[in-house]
Amino acid sequence: MGAVIDLGMPVAGGAFDEHHPPDAALIGDCVHCGFCLPTCPTYVLWGEEMDSPRGRIYLMKEGLEGEPMDDAMVSHWDACLGCMACVTACPSGVQYDTLIEQTRAQVERNHERAPKDKALRGLIFAIFPHPKRLRLLRGPLRVLQRTGLDRAVRRTGLLERMAPQLAAMESLAPRLGRPEPLPPRITATGERRAVVGLLTGCVQGAFFPGVNSATARVLQAEGCDVVVPPKQGCCGALSVHNGRETEAQDYARAIVDAFEAAGVERIVVNAAGCGSTMKDYARLLGDDPAYAERATAFAEKVRDVSEILDELGPVATRHPLELSVAYHDACHLAHAQGVRAQPRALLTGIPGLELREIAEGELCCGSAGIYNILNPEPARELGDRKAANIVATGADVLVTANPGCLMQVTAAIERSGHPMGMAHTIEVLDASLRGAPASSLREGTHPSA
Ligand code: SF4
Ligand code: SF4
After folding, report:
1. Its domain of life (predicted)?
2. Number of folded domains in the chain?
């Protein structure tokens, strides 16, 4: 790749329009060293230059210089998981996260997708960013799970053959527990140390209500008043990551409104993908004069739950949990937010708990938002590879901090035939604070659900 010329605007007739094309200066930061290649899951799977960060950046440069957007070009960008392992690996500080986000918004505006792809994306976005619609799905899903019909359908392999993407969606659905609605305000135990707002999320709220309850209990025990704004909707993460820029901005504005009205000092998130998006609201709403400043103030308050607990320091008593735990770094927590030490510190602060690291820890598990539905084959391969590395730790429980990873890894572990406990980081800490037995974590898919 030659040096990127300083393009103020994309060349007419090329891939991009003038609304935030991939930034030429950021593209120019890439020195083509290839350090990112071994951490890029698609390059690891296929060994193709155009399915590496460097190759994708090269295609952006070509698009800026006048190359039209075609199916092949889009397929390489579509195949990117958005895992941001390349951002961590890059010694030159290339902001691939910004580049791929700008590129994906251009693709959604300027590229006509095949009708089947369009319909699937339409279906996903008609359901996933809507907490109420997701909650409505709980009833039929629970019936399927309780009657064993879901497993029976899976065994026939029929859905897999007819509609692999729908089969992927079905196989990822977690075992559902009872709903656990949270009150609008929960008062701190003992001396109040902070007033925090809790994002309940779409998938987290509908499919993992126990994680939200555990988060609220832990924050309460650590001296926080927890405010749960009742009118909160989707944070826009799925939309941002899939180039649906205006939709994402609408969701972001509504979230800013809801949490401003709550009057909180910090906004706590327990889903990695949501946290990384909300920390980036200043950029997402940067063009909106009514929201730009408010979005910046909002983003500064956002913390992953492990970050706020680390900042506050522990006051509640930790009861022992004789347990070995393999911790899986969610990409949007480790690579996108740089949060690695805090969840590990929370876990190792529990007496009796042994933390085990997973080989190839930087490699994505294949979940990546809705990637595992849109691209079931590579996602499954990555999931199986992750499951093998997790099983090799010999740990009792797999712990991670993102609902997407929990669903993806649970399905892969089930396929591996080596069942183990699965939990969110906060559920482990909650079990310790409550003095729950270690067996509740070893045996449960989600102990507080
Ligand atoms: S975000 Fe992940 S999949 Fe995409 S180019 Fe970077 S490392 Fe590869
Ligand atoms: S590591 Fe950074 S500079 Fe090197 S090829 Fe990858 S993106 Fe470019």
Report:
1. Bacteria
2. 4
Q: By alpha-carbon position, which residue is closest to atom 3 of ligand 2?
A: 30
**Residue 284 Cβ < 6 Å to ligand 1:** no
The residue behind tokens 């906060």 is: 426
In this structure, the answer to whether residues 283 and 325 fall within a common structural domain is no
In this predicted model, what pLDDT tens digit does every residue of 249-297 receive, in sequence order?
999 999 999 999 999 999 999 999 999 999 999 999 999 999 999 999 9
If phi > 0 it is left, if psi is from -120 to 50 it is alpha, else beta; for residue 6 that is beta
Strands 185-186 and 224-227, sheet pairing: antiparallel
Query: Which structural domain range is residue 415 located in?
Result: 317-443
**How does pLDDT run across 354-386, given as a tens digit for each residue?**
999 999 999 999 998 899 999 999 999 999 999
DSSP state of 92: T
In a domain, 361, yes or no: yes
CATH number at residue 325: 3.40.50.11810
Name the residue with the closest Cα to ligand 2, atom 2. 90
Q: Please give the helix or strand (H or E) that residue 408 lies within, else none.
A: helix 403-416
Does any ligand 1 atom lie closer than 6 A to the CB of residue 336? no
Using 50, 70 and 90 to split pLDDT, how confident is the model at 6?
very low
Q: Calculate how far, in angstroms, residue 90's C-alpha sits from the geometric centre of ligand 2.
A: 5
Q: Is the dihedral of CA 117, 85, 404, 324 positive or negative?
A: positive
Closest ligand, as measured to the CA of 38: 1
The CATH code of the domain that includes 195 is 3.40.50
Q: What is the DSSP letter of 188?
A: P
* Atom 8 of ligand 2, nearest CA residue: 30
Binding pocket residue ranges, ligand 2, CB within 6 Å: 30-36, 53-54, 86, 89-90, 92, 94
Instruction: Ligand 1, residue 39: give the atom nearest the CA.
Output: 7
> Is residue 226 classed as helix, strand or coil in its secondary structure?
strand
